[in-house]
Structure formats: C-alpha cells, structure tokens
C-alpha cells in the first residue's frame, strides 16, 4: 500500500487548515474521512472540489515507455464466457452502453477501432506502489457517451467487467467530469498492439488522473446512472465497497 493511504499522525485545527492540507492528506485524517464518507454528495463533492479536475496528466515520449509494464488486478477472468470470447479473437464481444441514455449502444471491437481514436503515453500509478509508462489507444469515452445521448439525470458512469470477484463482476465508476476528460479513453491497444489478456483485452478504461484500480479492465457494460446507491454497497466500486479505498483516487 502506498504512502497516500497511510494515516498521518496528529490533527489539523480549523477548516482552513483542513483545506490547505490538500486532497490526499485530507482523506487520510480520520476525522476528515468521517466527514468525506458521511454522504454521497458530501464525500464526492468535497474530494473533487479540492482538485483541478480539468488538468491533463503528463504525457511522455515513445522512448520513455517502460520496458516492462506489469498487469494490475486480475490477470485473466478465466470464466467460460470470457474464454470463448478470447478464443474467437473477441469477434463476438460487444460493449453495451446503457442506463440513462437516449440511444443504447452495442459496440463491437471493430466499431471501437473505427471511431476517432486518441493515442497517449502516460504513467500508470498502482495503489500497490509501482508505476509504469505505456501507450494507450482508443476512442474518448466522452464521444461514446455523446453518441449514446446522456439524459439530464445522469451523474455517474458505471463500468461492469468480465472478471469476477467473489462470484460477481468487478465494477467501478467515475463522474461526468472524468468521463468527458480528453484523456479518458476506452483503450483497445497498448504500445501499438491490441490489448493482451493480462492488460484487459479486449477493452479497458484509461482514466489518467486517477490511480490504477479505477482503470477497469475487461469492459462489458457502461451505464449512466443518477446515483451510486444501488451499485454494490454504494461507495462506487469493488475496492471502495470492500477495502475502503477512496472513490476519488486523484493523482
């Protein structure tokens, strides 16, 4: 576990001191965590208010890519359904886009590749304490959501994956600011090649301003929702619900 999740000792007196501590430090103070996680709007609103949400993650040159890029999380979903998709080169895979949208979509891998794509070389920071630089290619999530037509009530985007944790699909979520960030993409290629299984084939989320556990792999569904209260235990993701990871993992 990296330092950002280590509880710091001592306290900060006064509201001004709390804000000056910065987002990472704020969420590490027990009293502040109690406030931040007291309710959906307070938790997510205050965390996001303390960050520059429009800033771009640093991008790197091709020669700065890491020679080894470890896989985070699941290395292979291993289910019968996923094995069948992989055996067919993911020709039968479809990414469902639904929830609070006007035009539900079912996108094939060929559909994603045919969309305007963005390539970016960025650093992946894992909560386990390692980092690596890689190149990712795929359409911007925001453009896919525009094609689906978000309804006015939509506030969050939920990702459901092919890998199972405790017998249920892995899931994560982001808000609309991150969803429409230009560096948030549905990556189908890594370092100029189609994604392999350990890195999330056939498609994974890249949300470059957040830690690695937010970058959901093996995407199967994308749903626009008004609230996260009905998703898992209501904190917005598998690790948030089960290990108390921060919902907003900004870096």
Helix amount: 10-25%
Shape: globular
Strand content: 25-35%
Note the run of SSEs as H and E: HHHHHEEHEEHEEHEEEEEH
Protein name: DMSO/TMAO reductase YedYZ molybdopterin-dependent catalytic subunit
Organism: Sphingomonas abaci
Domain Oxidoreductase molybdopterin-binding: 91-225
Describe the structure.
This is DMSO/TMAO reductase YedYZ molybdopterin-dependent catalytic subunit. InterPro entries: OxRdtase_Mopterin-bd_dom (IPR000572), OxRdtase_Mopterin-bd_sf (IPR036374). There is one protein chain. With 251 residues, this protein is α+β, with helices and mostly antiparallel strands. 24% of the residues lie in helices and 25% in strands. It has a single domain, classed as Sulfite Oxidase, Chain A, domain 2. It has a five-stranded mixed β-sheet. It has a four-stranded antiparallel β-sheet with strand order 3-4-8-9. It has a two-stranded antiparallel sheet with strand order 7-10. The protein is globular. The model is unreliable at 1-40 (pLDDT under 50).
Blueprint of the fold:
Blueprint: H1 15-20, H2 23-26, H3 30-36, H4 40-49, H5 80-87, E1 95-99, E2 105-107, H6 109-114, E3 117-125, E4 131-139, H7 141-148, E5 156-165, E6 168-175, H8 176-179, E7 184-187, E8 189-190, E9 193-194, E10 204-207, E11 219-225, H9 238-243
Parallel strand pairs: 1-11
Antiparallel strand pairs: 1-2, 3-4, 4-8, 5-6, 5-11, 7-10, 8-9
